[in-house]
Each structure stands twice: as C-alpha cells, then as structure tokens.
Amino acid sequence: MTGPQAVSGFHIYFCRRRNMSVFSRAGAVSHKLLALLVALATAAGLMVVGTGTAQAANRDWLRPDSTGHCDWDGVGYWVQRCDVYSPAMGRNIAVQIQPAQRGGNAGLYLLDGMRATTWSNAWLVDTNAAALYAPHNITLVMPVGGAGSFYADWNHPATLSSAEPVVYMWETFLTAELPAYLEQHFGVARNNNSVAGLSMGGTAALNLAAKHPGQFRQAMSYSGYLTTTAPGMQTMLRLAMLDTGGFNVNAMYGSVINPRRFENDPFWNMGGLRGKDVYVSAASGLWGPQDNGTRVDHRINGSVLEAVSLATTRAWEAKARAEGLNVTADYPNTGIHSWAQFSSQLHKTRDRVLNVMNAW
Question: What are the GO MF terms of this UniProt record (predicted)?
C-alpha cells in the first residue's frame, strides 16, 4: 500500500515447517489439491467487499500526469489530484479523481457552480462526494476551475482585459482531451459516463450530454438554468459573469442573435438526450429547516436564484416530456440555491447513478 487512503487487505500466508508438514506425513494429499486450497483461500481474501486488496489494487497508486505523477488530495478517500494538459486551452487543468473501487470502467463527471475555484472542486469542499462514492465501482471525475465558463468553448477570451486573457475551451477538454487521459490511466470507457452539475454545472451537464451522446449515458441537473435564451436571461448572465470574474458574456457565444447561444441552451438542445436517463431538480426557493443558520441576505439571494432555476427547469421539463425524453424531475417544497439543496440531491441520486451505470 502506498497511499494514505489505502485500506489494508487480508494477507494469507502458507507456513510449513521442514519435515513436519501434515501433508508430507499423510502422504495422501496431492499437489493439485494443495494448489486448489491455496487458490481458494486467496480468492476469499480478495472478495472481501470494501476492504480487500482488489479495492486497494486500483486505488493505492498514483497515476501519471503531465507533470510526472498525480498527488494524493487532502480530502482523502483515494482522491488524486492530476494535472492534465489541454492543448485547446494551452495549459494544465487540475482534475480531482477517485478511481473506481474495483477497476470498473464507468465514470461520473461532477461539474462545479458559477464560482468554481482554482484550488478544489466544490463537490469535495461543500459536501464530500468522494466519501459518498467510496464503496462503489465508479470513477469520480471532478475538474477544478472554470468559474463562469458554463464548461463551454468560448468564441473569445473570457475577460474584458487583454492583459491577462482567460481562454475557455472546456467542452473540448471534457469531451475530447480528458476522456483519452482517463481511458489510458484510470480505465474509464469513453462511452460509459454520467454527468451531473449544480447551478451553472447543471446547465452544462445537460448541454454536454446532449451534444456528445456517445460519451454520456446519463445527465443530471441540480438547480441548473435550463432556458438560457429566455427573455431576461442574457442580462442575468451578464451581471453574474461580471460579478464572478469580470467576464464578458458576449465572448462566450457572441451577440444575442448568434446561433451558438441557442445551440448551447438546454431548452433548444435536447435531442441528443433521447434514450438517456435524465434527472432534473430545483427547489421552491422557500426557506426550510436546512437553511437555518444561513445569513438572511444569503437566504434572500438564494431564494431568488432557486426560484429562477425552478421556473426554467419546469419549462425545460415540459418541453422534454413533449419530445418524448425519459425525464425524472424532483421539486422539493423548501430549499434555496445553496449547498444544503445541492448536497441533498447528490445523496438522493446516488443509487440512481449506480443502477444506471451498473457500478455498485
């Protein structure tokens, strides 16, 4: 075992004292039977669920990355922080990865919200997705960074300042560059993935799955914004991006009449989701017990943001059902745009993910 997260397995030893073996004394047990007994004992050790060397064998070693090798992440649970070079963005992108427990080839991409940081994916900070999925046979893929990007390929650098251009080519990275790395070093199949995200990440999850149906079998939006070209949404996005990092919304898809805006709106971009498992959720925006302790101004902001998410999600669901998509929707009676809501959805959908991806 090499990693601090490794779990000790059963170590089986066969000991014989010279000239004292019961087998040699009895003289009746064949070498084939002895080999069979040892093999059965070894298999019994490997089959221990959640603790055996089968789990450690896929999780206790650091994979190569573009800087040499990945590092153990401080969150534990076998999560590695890997630098994956993106030719499209011209830099290394950090990705936090928890290998599947037993080497399965399914992957779950977890996308961050509008204020994604450059030091950790929020699914490991504001809740612990790694702990939730630790006993299971699916690889968690958690990209770091991309604040305000909607995980899209932008037409131009995101910042208004040309002195420090921010190049966003996240769709290319997540669907063309990262899958090759994951397949080579973590055994994740390019056609056996689920994708989920919160808020901005929920919008992106449905877009990416619809535009790349060969990569994703399942898509889930937790409090996403699913009608981004609806009246007023462009203004809301403009203000949100300026507040997030001084980003220029026109640099993403161009002007309000640019066709790319509609190509990247989940409301108009859902044909590729046909035949897939799709889950959407948004709460009412009303305060509930889970919001106790949150500052009042944060609760007010969270109520407004969740109410907008709810309206866009319901509109998206109605259109999706009319088009024959396989959609499950969940609308809790209380809840605001906060990690109490996002985390509850992560836990609520875990079994769904494992069933669809056959990754128990």
Answer: acyltransferase activity, transferring groups other than amino-acyl groups
